[in-house]
Write a structure and sequence with these properties.
The complex is a heterotrimer of chains A (about 240), B (about 80) and C (about 475). With about 80 residues, chain B is an alpha+beta fold. Chain B is about 15% helix and about 40% strand. In chain B, a hairpin with a 2-residue loop joins strand 4 and strand 5. The longest helix of chain B is centred in the middle third of the chain and has 9 residues. Chain C is mainly alpha-helical. Chain C has two domains: about 50 residues, no CATH class; about 400 residues, no CATH class. A two-stranded antiparallel sheet of chain C has the order 3-4. The chains are: A alpha/beta (about 240), B alpha+beta (about 80), C mainly alpha (about 475).
């Protein structure tokens, strides 16, 4: 059985690396001295006898601002298409953190949202209604504390459900204003024809409207180095964003 | 009805709170500021200046973000609470 | 292979992009995309998150009233730096000499073993005096300080103090044309310059990132700490000083070195941003995360494993062959003198201008692959040149130096040279990988080298002019 891949995305300072270290323990290979995650780290963990390959993406506030880190994180999610993208959020500043989760959900529905530092939030008198968030986002939402090992099993169960395809739900689609939606509708068929169906066409159309040239450069690179993947793969990877 | 007086964040004194009204920046910086919660309508609190006078730390969306004068002078807001004109 | 229709080729992307640009009417659409997302997340939060008392949220930031205050901000930074050095030096002192005696003790048995087996002298030389000694010095001198420095530093990092340093110092970096986050990449440099080069990715603007890359070397990395610590404690603390006072002076000297490094960093950034790297400072945003109590044992364990041991393995991998090479160079004779002596003699006149000697310059040249091995190579060079001293304690290292005519000036200039000279081979390779520019990679070695030569030359000439040595 090939291992499932899980990409860890999240804002800086959310304890993403703490969670990554907790899960992969000493089974990770970063050759270099790097304090906080700058260099993408890789590791492994097992859950229910199944092997998972974990990739720690650089901590980013967004996938849209085109710093080197954000491009790396974005390209990994789009091109490597991990089985699960785990979005780690800071419970004490959810509003800002949710932005990134929403951006990820626009790319892929194969995501689990993990609200870290929940104990810290309780201490500060913050109450979070997980069901409400999960209902809106359409993907599993788990509250954990990586440093105090709270909620880790539940998180792994949800990762497994999404990875194995047991959990399928429609992730939230942000309905933009009429003008944007019209633009997306016009671009969508062209995008699908050009980049094939293995990439999230709606999202790419949206980025095109935004004039995201760095994404175009990445796509171009990608397309120069390989032929366009068979549309059948799209079904296997279950990219939900195009319809 | 009086028109609210807009001041740049860089001019607001420590401890004051402002509601952001406009962000006069374009491009990547605008995007970055929006990412960090500097969005029209949001409330920002001026926390403190660095020991050397600049940058300034702001409290926004339950996070603390430091901006230099170059950036904070382009974000405009109206005072809320406290010193009202 | 079927040929792809135009709509599927990479060229099609360009036409797509221009089609999209026509649809997007010059900017407002972009804001609406972001505010669309932001609106949804604000909406979700309003629905799902409730706050008992918003004031409580600010409680973790109270410490900033002191840590970043006008009066205490800088004194606290210096004090923390000093304390970290003090803990490192005081703590490493004994384990270092224990390790040195242990390795010396084992060496005795190894030599006895070789003698018993009637092994040829050259074999004993290569394996014991070269490989074993070189490696064991690196371990005993490097391991203890690194086992203390890295965890202490990681604790500070996990506590959340480093962004405050960047906040406090930003204005200095701005004045010199750099980015405030350069303070963060410099902090990384204390651990390892090669890794710090990669960490400059957090700086988005290419110009400021290049500044951070080119100047990172002026922060002493773990490979240079042992050299600095050893020389400072042997030569700077004064002959009579012992115990706590010695540790304190050593820490103060190291802090001075770091401050010199910072001043050079700022000056070089300033000059470059006025010349080759001109440009407007780009935008700056820095998050000050809440202070969090670090998980002490976990941090210590992980940083010991990840950092100390990795650094050490690298040091040993490089030190072992270097030990052998140095021994061979010191024991192959041409015209009655060893190759090593010939080389040292060649550099000697130049080195004297800089207040050092030919062996030191040669050690720096041979030490290009890794700064960790500069000191071992130097010692091996000295020992192979006749003055055989049995090194079983750190104190006897000083005798080796003194017997080769060292003064405080030699030590100071070697420290300065070590602080300022070109980065190690690994760092240079990383610089090339990150900048993809041969020109900047070469400059990143040439600029520091020029400064190192200039500074040591000035110091040596001044000291001799005023008759201080």
């Amino acid at each position: 059985m090939t291992p499932y891949t899980v990409a860890f995305a999240g804002n800086p300072n959310t304890g993403k690396s703490t969670l990554f270290n907790l899960l992969t323990g000493m089974r990770q290979h970063t050759g270099n001295w790097a304090g906080k995650t700058v260099i993408t780290a890789e590791g492994e963990f097992t859950h229910n006898n199944r092997l998972y390959r974990a990739i720690d993406l650089p901590g980013t506030y967004s996938l849209y601002s085109n710093s080197a880190d954000e491009e790396a994180a974005r390209d990994y999610i789009i091109f490597e298409q991990p089985d699960v993208t785990l979005v780690v959020l800071d419970a004490t500043s959810l509003e800002r953190n949710l932005n990134l989760a929403l951006q990820v959900l626009e790319i892929t529905g194969r995501a689990v949202v993990c609200i870290n530092l929940i104990d810290e939030a309780h201490k500060l008198g913050i109450e979070i209604n997980l069901e409400a968030i999960s209902a809106r986002l359409g993907v599993p939402v788990v509250a954990i504390s990586a440093r105090n090992k709270i909620g880790i099993e539940a998180l792994l169960d949800q990762i497994e459900r999404v990875a194995s395809g047991t959990y399928t739900a429609e992730p939230l689609h942000i309905a933009y204003n009429e003008e944007i939606e019209r633009g997306i509708a016009q671009l969508l068929p062209m995008v699908e024809q050009t980049v094939g169906r293995s990439y999230p066409a709606r999202w790419i159309a949206l980025r095109l409207l935004d004039g995201d040239e760095s994404l175009m450069a990445s796509l171009q690179n990608r397309m120069n180095s390989q032929t366009i993947p068979d549309p059948k793969e799209a079904v296997r990877h279950g990219v939900t964003a195009c319809h | 009805m009086t028109k609210p007086i807009l001041i740049p964040l860089s001019e607001a004194e420590n401890g004051s709170r402002l509601r952001i009204r406009s962000i006069e920046v374009q491009g990547v910086l605008r995007r970055r500021l929006l990412d960090l919660g500097f969005v029209a309508g949001n409330v920002v609190e001026v926390l403190r200046r660095s020991p050397l006078g600049d940058p300034t730390a702001f409290r926004i969306s339950n996070t603390t973000i430091a901006l230099r004068r170059e950036e904070s002078s382009l974000i405009f807001g109206e005072r809320i609470g406290g010193a009202q004109i | 292979m079927e040929s792809l229709p135009a709509t599927k080729g990479p060229d099609a992307l360009q036409s797509l992009l221009s089609a999209a640009q026509k649809l997007a009417d010059g900017g407002t659409i972009r804001d609406e995309i972001v505010s669309g997302i932001y609106g949804v997340s604000a909406e979700i939060c309003a629905e799902a998150v409730s706050y008992q008392d918003r004031k409580k949220l600010n409680s973790t930031y109270k410490l900033d009233n002191i840590a970043t205050s006008r009066i205490w901000g800088f004194p606290i930074m210096l004090a923390i730096l000093g304390v970290v050095f003090w803990i490192t030096i005081a703590g490493a002192n004994y384990p270092s000499s224990w390790l040195a005696s242990l390795f010396g003790f084992i060496e005795g048995y190894l030599t006895a073993g070789f003698t018993a087996l009637h092994a040829p002298d050259w074999l004993h030389g290569v394996l014991v005096l070269g490989l074993y000694r070189g490696t064991s010095w690196v371990i005993s001198v490097m391991l203890p300080p690194m086992m203390i420095f890295f965890p202490v530093f990681a604790l500070l990092e996990n506590f959340g103090y480093l962004p405050r340093v960047a906040f406090n110092m930003d204005r200095l970096f701005k004045k010199s044309g750099g980015h405030g986050k350069q303070a963060l990449t410099m902090s990384m440099g204390f651990g390892c310059n090669a890794a710090a080069i990669l960490s400059t990715r957090i700086i988005e603007s290419p110009r400021e990132r290049m500044l951070a890359i080119l100047t990172n070397n002026f922060v002493p990395c773990n490979g240079r700490w042992p050299t600095l610590i050893l020389l400072a404690s042997l030569f700077m603390a004064g002959g009579a000083a012992t115990g706590a006072f010695r540790t304190l002076t050593t820490a103060a000297v190291l802090m001075g070195m770091v401050l010199i490094g910072i001043i050079v960093t700022l000056s070089v950034s300033w000059v470059l941003s006025k010349t080759a790297l001109r440009g407007v400072p780009t935008h700056y945003t820095l998050e000050l995360p809440p202070y969090r109590r670090p998980q002490i044992w976990k941090t210590i364990l992980i940083s010991s494993k990840d950092k100390s041991l990795n650094v050490l393995t690298r040091a040993i991998i490089v030190a072992a062959p270097a030990g052998i090479i140095t021994w061979i160079l010191g024991n192959v004779f041409i015209g009655g003198e060893s190759v090593l002596n010939h080389m040292a003699a060649f550099f000697d006149p130049f080195a004297h201008l800089l207040g050092m000697d030919g062996f030191i310059i040669m050690a720096f040249i041979l030490g290009l692959p890794a700064n960790e091995i500069v000191l071992p190579i130097l010692l091996m060079g000295y020992m192979s040149s006749g003055a055989m001293v049995d090194i079983d304690s750190l104190g006897s290292i000083k005798e080796v130096f003194l017997s080769h005519g060292w003064t405080w000036l030699t030590a100071l200039n070697m420290m300065l040279f070590s602080l300022l000279h070109y980065p190690c081979g690994t760092t240079l390779v990383n610089i090339y990988k990150e900048t993809k520019s041969l020109k900047w990679s070469v400059l990143s070695a040439v600029i520091p080298l020029g400064i190192a030569i200039g500074v040591t030359f000035a110091v040596a000439q001044l000291a001799q002019l005023f008759g201080w040595v």
